[in-house]
């Protein structure tokens, strides 16, 4: 845990000292809303990881719906291997590992994810989002099936 905390502190120190453009690009990797990323850059330096997370949450929840939709659009579809490879081409990137549960999915599950993702998008106007870390493709598919019943307002 101490090593992990040191790693976070080292990363935070780097984030606090990179150029504005570099910081903007890093924040944009985390959240595809340009306005949110710009606001995060303007809040540097962060004194702690907790401060960064609190700021990120505050800025997110005070963003407008168009900012949220911009962020949603920056995400690859769950189970879409091609878009994942395009977006997260860096070796060992943290983002690429987020949907690693889809890497071992059966063809049937991937096809169902693709079909239901398309249905979800047609219904809501944006892609299905879920915290995929640690979830199997079958778990994500089950969540997608459940959430298809929600109205657009609930999903936003």
Question: What is the element layout, followed by pairings?
Answer:
Blueprint: H1 2-17, H2 20-30, H3 34-42, H4 49-61, H5 65-73, H6 81-87, H7 94-98, H8 107-124, H9 137-147, H10 152-155
Helix pairs in contact: 2-3, 8-9
Q: What key attributes describe this structure?
A:
elongated; 156 residues; 0% strand; mainly alpha
DSSP helix count?
A: 10
Structural class given helices, strands, pairing? Answer: mainly alpha
Query: What is the helix fraction of residues, given as a range?
Result: 55-70%
What oligomeric assembly is this protein in? Answer: single chain
Sketch the major β-sheet.
none
**What is the element string, with H for helices and E for strands?**
HHHHHHHHHH
Mean pLDDT: 84
Distance between termini? 35 Å
Find the count of extended strands (DSSP E, 2+ residues).
Answer: 0
pLDDT < 50 runs, ≥5 residues: 87-98
What share of residues are in beta strands?
Answer: under 5%
Name the shape in a single word.
Answer: elongated
User: Could you tell me the radius of gyration in angstroms?
Assistant: 17 Å
Could you give a short description of this structure?
By secondary structure, the protein is mainly α. The protein contains 10 helices and no strands.
């Amino acid at each position: 845990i101490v090593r992990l905390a040191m790693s976070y502190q080292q990363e935070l120190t780097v984030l606090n000292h990179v150029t504005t453009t570099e910081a903007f690009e890093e924040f944009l990797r985390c959240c595809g809303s340009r306005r949110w990323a710009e606001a995060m850059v303007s809040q540097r330096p962060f004194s702690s990881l907790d401060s960064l997370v609190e700021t990120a949450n505050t800025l997110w929840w005070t963003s407008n719906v168009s900012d949220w939709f911009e962020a949603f659009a920056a995400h690859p579809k769950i189970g879409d291997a091609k878009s994942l490879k395009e977006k997260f081409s860096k070796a060992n990137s943290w983002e690429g590992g987020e949907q690693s549960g889809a890497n071992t999915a059966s063809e049937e599950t991937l096809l169902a994810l693709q079909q239901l993702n398309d249905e979800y998008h047609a219904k809501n106007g944006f892609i299905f989002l879920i915290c995929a870390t640690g979830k199997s493709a079958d778990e994500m598919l089950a969540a997608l099936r459940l959430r298809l019943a929600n109205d657009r307002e609930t999903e936003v």
